[in-house]
Amino acid sequence: MIELKNIFKWVSSGGNRVFLLKDINLSIKEGEFISIMGPSGSGKSTLLNVIGMLDEFNEGEYLFMDQPVHQLKEKQKAQFYKTYIGFVFQAYHLIDELTVYENIETPLLYQKVKSSERQAIVADILDRFNIVGKKALFPAQLSGGQQQLVGIARALATKPKLILADEPTGNLNTKQGVEIMELFKQLNEEDGVTIIQATHSEKNAAYGSKIINLLDGIVEK
Protein backbone atom coordinates (compact mmCIF):
# COMPACT_ATOMS: atom_id res chain seq x y z
CA MET A 1 0.00 0.00 0.00
CA ILE A 2 2.80 2.41 0.99
CA GLU A 3 6.39 2.35 -0.25
CA LEU A 4 8.86 4.99 0.88
CA LYS A 5 12.23 4.76 -0.84
CA ASN A 6 15.23 6.84 0.28
CA ILE A 7 13.10 9.72 1.54
CA PHE A 8 15.00 12.82 2.65
CA LYS A 9 13.47 16.02 3.98
CA TRP A 10 15.47 19.00 5.15
CA VAL A 11 15.27 22.68 5.91
CA SER A 12 18.04 25.15 5.21
CA SER A 13 19.48 27.03 8.16
CA GLY A 14 22.41 29.41 7.79
CA GLY A 15 23.47 27.75 4.55
CA ASN A 16 23.39 24.27 6.12
CA ARG A 17 20.89 21.49 5.67
CA VAL A 18 19.08 20.41 8.80
CA PHE A 19 17.64 16.96 8.15
CA LEU A 20 14.11 16.27 9.42
CA LEU A 21 13.98 12.85 7.71
CA LYS A 22 17.05 10.99 6.54
CA ASP A 23 17.03 8.07 4.10
CA ILE A 24 13.67 6.63 5.15
CA ASN A 25 12.79 3.25 3.62
CA LEU A 26 9.44 1.79 4.65
CA SER A 27 7.00 -0.70 3.24
CA ILE A 28 3.50 -0.84 4.76
CA LYS A 29 0.90 -3.36 3.67
CA GLU A 30 -2.84 -2.77 3.60
CA GLY A 31 -4.45 -3.80 6.90
CA GLU A 32 -1.35 -3.27 9.05
CA PHE A 33 -1.35 -1.31 12.32
CA ILE A 34 1.97 0.51 12.57
CA SER A 35 3.27 2.47 15.57
CA ILE A 36 5.99 5.08 15.02
CA MET A 37 7.87 5.82 18.23
CA GLY A 38 10.53 8.31 19.15
CA PRO A 39 11.24 11.32 21.36
CA SER A 40 9.99 14.83 20.56
CA GLY A 41 11.77 16.19 17.50
CA SER A 42 12.58 12.74 16.14
CA GLY A 43 10.53 13.32 12.98
CA LYS A 44 7.37 11.33 13.81
CA SER A 45 4.90 14.07 12.83
CA THR A 46 6.96 15.00 9.78
CA LEU A 47 6.91 11.39 8.59
CA LEU A 48 3.14 11.16 9.12
CA ASN A 49 2.65 14.42 7.20
CA VAL A 50 4.75 13.11 4.32
CA ILE A 51 2.77 9.85 4.23
CA GLY A 52 -0.46 11.89 4.44
CA MET A 53 0.67 14.12 1.54
CA LEU A 54 0.44 17.22 3.74
CA ASP A 55 4.21 17.78 3.53
CA GLU A 56 6.60 17.74 0.58
CA PHE A 57 9.94 15.92 0.72
CA ASN A 58 13.21 16.85 -0.97
CA GLU A 59 14.47 13.52 -2.27
CA GLY A 60 13.25 9.97 -2.75
CA GLU A 61 10.23 8.12 -4.05
CA TYR A 62 6.82 7.56 -2.49
CA LEU A 63 4.33 5.06 -3.88
CA PHE A 64 0.80 5.07 -2.47
CA MET A 65 -1.43 2.28 -3.81
CA ASP A 66 1.05 1.94 -6.70
CA GLN A 67 0.77 5.64 -7.59
CA PRO A 68 4.01 7.70 -7.60
CA VAL A 69 3.13 10.49 -5.17
CA HIS A 70 6.40 12.31 -5.94
CA GLN A 71 5.21 12.75 -9.53
CA LEU A 72 1.61 13.79 -8.83
CA LYS A 73 0.34 17.36 -9.15
CA GLU A 74 -1.06 19.10 -6.06
CA LYS A 75 -4.64 18.65 -7.25
CA GLN A 76 -4.11 14.88 -7.71
CA LYS A 77 -2.53 14.59 -4.26
CA ALA A 78 -5.43 16.47 -2.70
CA GLN A 79 -7.84 14.08 -4.39
CA PHE A 80 -5.92 11.07 -3.08
CA TYR A 81 -5.90 12.52 0.42
CA LYS A 82 -9.64 13.23 0.39
CA THR A 83 -10.49 9.80 -0.99
CA TYR A 84 -8.25 7.44 0.93
CA ILE A 85 -6.80 9.10 4.05
CA GLY A 86 -8.27 10.12 7.40
CA PHE A 87 -6.11 12.19 9.76
CA VAL A 88 -6.54 12.27 13.56
CA PHE A 89 -4.62 15.06 15.28
CA GLN A 90 -3.59 15.45 18.92
CA ALA A 91 -5.10 18.94 18.97
CA TYR A 92 -8.42 17.66 17.53
CA HIS A 93 -8.54 20.37 14.80
CA LEU A 94 -12.31 20.60 15.01
CA ILE A 95 -13.94 23.71 13.54
CA ASP A 96 -15.13 25.76 16.52
CA GLU A 97 -18.00 27.44 14.66
CA LEU A 98 -19.52 24.14 13.54
CA THR A 99 -21.59 21.67 15.54
CA VAL A 100 -20.53 18.06 16.05
CA TYR A 101 -22.85 17.04 13.21
CA GLU A 102 -21.41 19.69 10.86
CA ASN A 103 -17.80 18.83 11.76
CA ILE A 104 -18.39 15.18 10.84
CA GLU A 105 -20.21 16.20 7.66
CA THR A 106 -17.43 18.54 6.43
CA PRO A 107 -15.21 15.97 4.60
CA LEU A 108 -18.31 14.60 2.86
CA LEU A 109 -19.09 18.09 1.56
CA TYR A 110 -15.55 18.26 0.13
CA GLN A 111 -16.23 14.97 -1.62
CA LYS A 112 -19.52 16.34 -2.98
CA VAL A 113 -21.53 13.48 -1.48
CA LYS A 114 -25.27 13.91 -2.08
CA SER A 115 -27.32 15.37 0.79
CA SER A 116 -29.40 12.25 1.54
CA GLU A 117 -26.30 10.06 1.52
CA ARG A 118 -24.44 12.51 3.79
CA GLN A 119 -27.28 12.44 6.30
CA ALA A 120 -27.27 8.63 6.34
CA ILE A 121 -23.48 8.43 6.79
CA VAL A 122 -23.38 11.02 9.59
CA ALA A 123 -26.36 9.42 11.36
CA ASP A 124 -24.63 6.03 11.20
CA ILE A 125 -21.36 7.43 12.59
CA LEU A 126 -23.09 9.38 15.39
CA ASP A 127 -24.80 6.15 16.37
CA ARG A 128 -21.63 4.07 16.17
CA PHE A 129 -19.74 6.48 18.42
CA ASN A 130 -22.65 6.95 20.84
CA ILE A 131 -22.65 10.73 20.30
CA VAL A 132 -26.15 11.21 18.85
CA GLY A 133 -27.03 13.32 21.90
CA LYS A 134 -24.03 15.59 21.22
CA LYS A 135 -24.70 16.32 17.54
CA ALA A 136 -25.98 19.89 18.09
CA LEU A 137 -23.18 20.86 20.50
CA PHE A 138 -20.11 22.90 19.58
CA PRO A 139 -16.54 21.70 20.30
CA ALA A 140 -16.16 24.10 23.25
CA GLN A 141 -19.07 22.33 24.96
CA LEU A 142 -17.32 18.92 24.81
CA SER A 143 -14.66 17.31 26.99
CA GLY A 144 -11.25 16.50 25.50
CA GLY A 145 -12.19 12.85 25.10
CA GLN A 146 -15.43 13.74 23.34
CA GLN A 147 -13.63 16.15 21.01
CA GLN A 148 -11.11 13.46 20.08
CA LEU A 149 -13.98 11.03 19.48
CA VAL A 150 -15.56 13.55 17.10
CA GLY A 151 -12.17 14.00 15.40
CA ILE A 152 -11.96 10.26 14.78
CA ALA A 153 -15.61 10.12 13.70
CA ARG A 154 -14.90 12.87 11.17
CA ALA A 155 -11.81 11.03 9.91
CA LEU A 156 -13.94 7.92 9.35
CA ALA A 157 -16.82 9.66 7.59
CA THR A 158 -15.28 9.11 4.16
CA LYS A 159 -14.47 5.43 4.87
CA PRO A 160 -10.71 5.94 4.43
CA LYS A 161 -8.38 3.04 3.67
CA LEU A 162 -5.69 4.64 5.84
CA ILE A 163 -5.89 6.47 9.17
CA LEU A 164 -2.93 8.56 10.28
CA ALA A 165 -3.03 9.38 14.00
CA ASP A 166 -0.59 11.89 15.48
CA GLU A 167 -0.36 11.38 19.27
CA PRO A 168 -4.10 10.60 19.29
CA THR A 169 -4.35 10.26 23.08
CA GLY A 170 -1.88 12.99 24.02
CA ASN A 171 -4.50 15.29 25.52
CA LEU A 172 -6.70 12.62 27.09
CA ASN A 173 -6.85 11.00 30.51
CA THR A 174 -5.93 7.31 30.86
CA LYS A 175 -9.48 5.95 30.57
CA GLN A 176 -10.27 8.06 27.49
CA GLY A 177 -6.92 7.07 25.97
CA VAL A 178 -7.66 3.36 26.37
CA GLU A 179 -11.11 3.83 24.80
CA ILE A 180 -9.60 5.57 21.77
CA MET A 181 -6.91 2.91 21.32
CA GLU A 182 -9.47 0.11 21.61
CA LEU A 183 -11.51 1.88 18.94
CA PHE A 184 -8.48 1.96 16.61
CA LYS A 185 -7.87 -1.74 17.29
CA GLN A 186 -11.48 -2.50 16.38
CA LEU A 187 -11.30 -0.44 13.17
CA ASN A 188 -8.13 -2.24 12.19
CA GLU A 189 -9.28 -5.78 13.01
CA GLU A 190 -12.95 -5.60 12.04
CA ASP A 191 -13.00 -3.00 9.27
CA GLY A 192 -9.53 -3.69 7.86
CA VAL A 193 -8.47 -0.03 8.08
CA THR A 194 -4.71 0.48 7.86
CA ILE A 195 -3.54 2.58 10.81
CA ILE A 196 -0.27 4.43 11.32
CA GLN A 197 0.07 6.21 14.65
CA ALA A 198 2.86 8.38 16.00
CA THR A 199 3.15 8.03 19.76
CA HIS A 200 5.40 8.57 22.79
CA SER A 201 3.51 5.92 24.70
CA GLU A 202 4.86 2.35 24.79
CA LYS A 203 1.42 1.21 25.94
CA ASN A 204 -0.23 2.75 22.86
CA ALA A 205 2.55 1.53 20.57
CA ALA A 206 1.88 -2.04 21.73
CA TYR A 207 -1.51 -1.91 19.98
CA GLY A 208 0.37 -1.92 16.68
CA SER A 209 1.44 -5.08 14.89
CA LYS A 210 4.78 -3.43 14.12
CA ILE A 211 6.79 -0.69 15.85
CA ILE A 212 9.11 1.66 13.94
CA ASN A 213 11.60 3.62 16.06
CA LEU A 214 12.69 7.04 14.83
CA LEU A 215 15.63 9.06 16.15
CA ASP A 216 16.81 12.32 14.61
CA GLY A 217 14.82 11.58 11.45
CA ILE A 218 16.41 8.15 10.97
CA VAL A 219 14.68 4.76 11.30
CA GLU A 220 16.63 2.81 13.91
CA LYS A 221 17.53 -0.68 12.78
Model description:
- The chain is 36% helix and 28% strand.
- The two termini are 22 Å apart.
- A hairpin with a 2-residue loop joins strand 9 (210-215) and strand 10.
- The chain is α/β, with parallel strands linked by helices and 221 residues long.
- The model has no long low-confidence stretch (mean pLDDT 91).
- 35% of the residues are buried.
CATH-defined superfamily: P-loop containing nucleotide triphosphate hydrolases
SSE succession: EEEHEEHEHHHEHEHEE
SS content category: alpha/beta
* Name of the level-1 CATH class: Alpha Beta
Overall 3D form: globular
Task: State the end-to-end distance.
Answer: 22 Å
Number of strands: 10
Helix content: 25-40%
Mean pLDDT, nearest integer?
91
Please give the CATH architecture. Answer: 3-Layer(aba) Sandwich
Oligomeric composition of the shown chains: single chain
The fraction of residues assigned to DSSP E strands is 25-35%
- As for the number of domains, it is 1
**Spatial ordering of strands, largest sheet:** 6-7-8-3-9-10
Per the CATH scheme, the topology name is Rossmann fold
Rg (CA only): 18 Å
Specify the biggest β-sheet. Answer: 6 strands, mixed
What is the helix tally? 7
- Low-pLDDT sequence parts: none
Gist of the model:
The protein is built from seven helices and ten strands. The chain is of the alpha/beta class and 221 residues long.
Strand-helix topology:
Elements: E1 2-13, E2 16-28, E3 33-37, H1 44-51, E4 59-64, E5 67-68, H2 74-84, E6 85-88, H3 100-110, H4 115-128, H5 144-156, E7 162-166, H6 174-191, E8 194-199, H7 202-205, E9 210-215, E10 218-219
Parallel strand pairs: 3-8, 3-9, 6-7, 7-8
Antiparallel strand pairs: 1-2, 1-4, 4-5, 9-10
Helix pairs in contact: 3-4, 3-5
